Amino acid sequence: MKLCMIGSRGHCAYVFESITEVPDVTVTAVSPGCEDDPSRLLAMSERAGFHPELHGDWRTMLDKAAPDVVCIDGPFDKHAEMCIEALRRNIHVFCEKPIALTLEDLDRIQQAHAGSSARIVSMVGLRYDPAFYQAARMVHEGAVGKVKLIRAQKSYKLGTRPDFYRKRETYGGTIPWVGSHALDWILYFTQDTFRSVTAVQTAEDNQGNGDLEIAALCQFVTRSGILASASIDYLRPVSASTHGDDRVRVAGTDGVLEVANGKITLIDAGGERSFTPETPDRKLFSDFILELEGGRPAIVSDAETFELTRACLLAREAADTGKQVLF
Amino acid sequence: MKLCMIGSRGHCAYVFESITEVPDVTVTAVSPGCEDDPSRLLAMSERAGFHPELHGDWRTMLDKAAPDVVCIDGPFDKHAEMCIEALRRNIHVFCEKPIALTLEDLDRIQQAHAGSSARIVSMVGLRYDPAFYQAARMVHEGAVGKVKLIRAQKSYKLGTRPDFYRKRETYGGTIPWVGSHALDWILYFTQDTFRSVTAVQTAEDNQGNGDLEIAALCQFVTRSGILASASIDYLRPVSASTHGDDRVRVAGTDGVLEVANGKITLIDAGGERSFTPETPDRKLFSDFILELEGGRPAIVSDAETFELTRACLLAREAADTGKQVLF
Asked: What domains are there in chain A, each with its CATH number?
């Protein structure tokens, strides 16, 4: 299986985290996908034992290298175009989230997907985080009964970010970029889809980061009537022990389950107890490849990739307009 | 100072928690305020060393006993009428929250208040909880810098509740009843007022409790642009160690402060640390009385009482209508 890689602006390192678990995958070519320096992409490939060709132009690479799968991690505002070009060539897509920064681009990807034999998933790697992976399985198995209320939190350190984070056109917004994980946990834990959303956001006090929203809140109702919220911010102090403070709280008819600080807490009829999560039996990239190869079904689907992207963009629209948005 | 008490449906016990700190206050008369059994009210008074007259009719009591202050804790849907009658008689009011179940009734109370020499505050006792009281002071003193994002959580055990909880007309709704504490923390911590709200709620799976909403979410923007949310539910399992799981998370430009499990956690430039809260230097009822007597200013004002009640009712309206409501 030939893998090409475009860009390294986000989380393309997921590929190398589990590529040894799918030994028939070979990184045959890479392209920065823009004016970015390709050395990080080349170095990661070399460290993993690959010696890919370097292409300046990513379209030429897709044509000449003719990969089975492409990892798309170029400029955020080019994800959609790159996805569409790959799907048109029937190349499976493993793309940084969100896969599109506008609803029009998302529609265009879905059209290309409908006419393609290729699959597409986005890098929702935090589904595979030990605590969230195990907690979601517990919820799926009925640990809290029927889910009524779910809250997800993403809190990041702001740090110093590249210039493209400062413009909405090149960054996409904090709800899609940071919030996508929170929204994905809601979708994953509830196994439901969204019906409506309202959202608020603020770019004030963002330490000179242009359009970048420093904080946001989203409030959803799912199709089945679950109330869901996401709290998203870049306000985590630099002194904090980890980059992100990732949490989920799920309250149902039979219990309350929480993930925080990498641990799971459950209160149900049997009382309150904590779980130290086990190492998951799957990883993001290899999970996708194994399914492509006809093996075990992956836990991320094309439909969920589209649903998540649409949710991010509609939540951003709700925040931009101050109006409730229906799905 | 003569104190009369009407009803004991809610938190009138706050009176007896600190009445010994204001020794010139005497409970001279009580009335159940409805068909309720007055024995709890009488027993509490007796235990505190008072021997109040019992009146069947609360209006007659206000006229005959002519108190300086009245504690109002009758049927929720009678709070407004009782407040108005007391204010018209220039009797200071210490009322269970929310003081009104409709915006029309709230307006009528405010009109009566405008023409009265009497004061009114509602029983926002959780401001005086050690952890929240100390945490709010820390935030006021700049512990997190400029507040950008605040989340408050109220999670209660449902238990078995009297019939009046099952009807909107007599209960008022879960956002006003349970959520009032969460909204009050937001007002108290931020020292701000609300600009807009959207909210969602659900009464499904409420274990046969009629109209009672089992869960709700509210999302606010304050006048100064702070993003605020409240998560409210009756989903706390019966096996949990406490009745309520009360929390606040405040994220600002210089740090993140949280209250949970009765403790305070702060992450700022100096790192992460916890605080075991000290016993507050004030309690709800005596704080009000001391201010009435010309002593130390209380931490709850008439204006905040009106603001909180209006916020509860507008948030409920947002949830009922599915529309954003502006303040």
From this structure: 2-123 (3.40.50.720), 126-326 (3.30.360.10)
